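Q: What does the assembly look like in three dimensions?
Context provided by user:
Components: two
Sequences:
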Amino acid sequence: SQTIHQWPATLVQPVGSPLSLECTVEGTSNPNLYWYRQAAGRGLQLLFYSVGIGQISSEVPQNLSASRPQDRQFILSSKKLLLSDSGFYLCAWSVGKGAVGELFFGEGSRLTVL
Amino acid sequence: SQQGEEDPQALSIQEGENATMNCSYKTSINNLQWYRQNSGRGLVHLILIRSNEREKHSGRLRVTLDTSKKSSSLLITASRAADTASYFCATVMGGYQKVTFGTGTKLQVIP
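A: Here is the predicted structure of the complete assembly.
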């Protein structure tokens, strides 16, 4: 069966520090991968999605970047965090090829920037 | 950017009542999906309806889709306290792989 792992679960970082959130998927090949951010009590904002290794689509110009070094690994990074980067970050995957169906989400990473 | 807008933003009902949530979106879609999120957790997929479908059922869930009005509704019948959560609609445009979420409805079911 397929599983998705996302870490760390909680992170408190000072302004200006770097960030790395990692997401891995097991039990499937060539998935579509997604990073979303959710502000407190709000909806999900699509940050990045990827349909293959090295293929990253950015939805919102910002202080963040994403990479997909391996088929089932998706990394969200920042060189210098801003206060506005605080939020709940969610990684998700879907079956690749054809129209996108169900998304499977990780448990999220809560980032607080102080 | 948000593709969908949910209405109402919050809903409080008694256990046993039905809960209806609405979603409006802006562009043509391939399919529309509904998700549930318990506080502080990841989202869980509930149901998917394709653009050529008008209604779909899954257990106590009923979803309708009106592509002419660019709107969908989620009905939860005979609600239970365990249904308390936030509910989101998500849209997929044809030919694209991105999935865009709405703003969500926070449902509280009072025992």
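Follow-up: Chain A has a mean pLDDT of 93.
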